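question for whoever is on the cluster today: can someone run the full assembly for these? two chains, 499 residues total. i dont have access anymore since they changed the login thing
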Amino acid sequence: MRRATELAAPILLLVVLVGAWEAAVRGLGVPQYILPAPSRILISFVARFPGLLHHASVTLAEIVLGLLMGGLGGFGLAVAVFYSPILDRALYPLIIASQMIPVFAIAPLLIVWMGYGLWPKATVAALIGFFPIVINASDGLRAPSEESVELFRSLGATRGQIFRKLRFPASLPTLFAGLKVAVTLCVVGATIGEWVGAHQGLGYLMLQSNALLRVDLVFAAILTLSILGLLLFGALRIIERRVLRWRSLS
Amino acid sequence: MSAAAIRTTGVTKSFPGKRGEIPVLASISLEVERGAWTTILGPSGCGKTTLLRILAGLLAPDGGEVSIANAAGSAGRAAYLPQRDTLLPWRTALDNAILASEIEGRPLVAARARARGLMVRFGLSGFEHHYPSQLSGGMRQRLTLIRAFLADRDVLLLDEPLGALDPLTRASLQDWLLSVWMELGRTVVLVTHDVEEALLLSDRIVVLTDRPSMIGRDLRVDLPRPRDRASIELVRTKGALLDLLLEGR
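^ ran it for u. tokens below:
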């Protein structure tokens, strides 16, 4: 019941906005190749559904692979920076500086280096996605109190045990917070990767349709991408609730 | 009750402060009797916790020597219970209780069975699979103490384990703790600033002076257990000890 009322507000707003859009396009007689009406987009979405599904599956693979790479890389960096003060000093400024480089500038290089397939897109996604993971995981690894660490040490725990049984589980809540930000960034990253050079995927479809003045298909691709992003976010939340069951029980 | 479980000779410790070193412990020599309950009592900030952490092997003394159960170097030898709540929120009560066994690589099935037994015996029956956030403050503290007993060390070092509880829960946990100790045994070193708690539980009370701390008074409590909070002897000793603590300020 609460869920229903929670969902009601955004759906209502969406209906109002889409309704205004439909009315404006029809009332003002905007040509289709400038801005199609939502009804037109929906018709194209349904008509081209199998094709959209195929492109979506390609983009999905890029996003998931990118998130995995960014997640593992980001968490690995966080652990390295946590345990090595030298690496901390050397790497942290570089990690932050890396965020100032526009990914658009690197994406063409990645295509040159890695070819047209899955990897350059996943890499672009990973490059954008790893940052919130590093930052959040670093915070999480520092979360256990000095007393908890001392308790482990007084029991004779090794550094590895302190990591596995204390720091790693303690870092999971913030790691998931980072992953949820990262997944939305990975959607953007994969699309950018496809814009730069691809022969399939939703980003590729957008670019192609745009060139053909099929704006309805551009929007259908955007709609598909949004749904994909929402589904991924939802999936992460379900995994998060499973893994962090102890948090929802208090 | 013969050999000393812990022996310190001339232990000193200071910490760096803004204007040079601040001496916290000035030559503490102490022998803790095996199987007895020894309480270290003192005003707050006097270095009780520092002494306990040195006994736990978490802090190296600047000078002097510490030996626990005749083995030099004491890390991992005594079970230490820090002041703040250290239950792991992602583990159930039962899995928190067996932490020490897990760290030492002892068989977990046996450890769980034993922990379950103790939880049932000591008032946590039915809460084995609850997470710490689902337990009351008193129950969490019981669980923390059971975990310390399950570490199977000869010596338990308790740093104000009941400090954060309301007076009623605290009183009931004092009785509970005594009953657990009387049943399971162990050498206990308790740090507290609560005079009544010290008198209720201890065989011996070591009073530390203000910083730099020395042993101001070493007192044996020979009253039979369980003790009555309102008995004349207890109240009278309590008054004398409070005077002693206030004098030191």
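summary bc i know u wont read the tokens: Chain A has one domain: 60-243. The radius of gyration of chain A is 22 Å.
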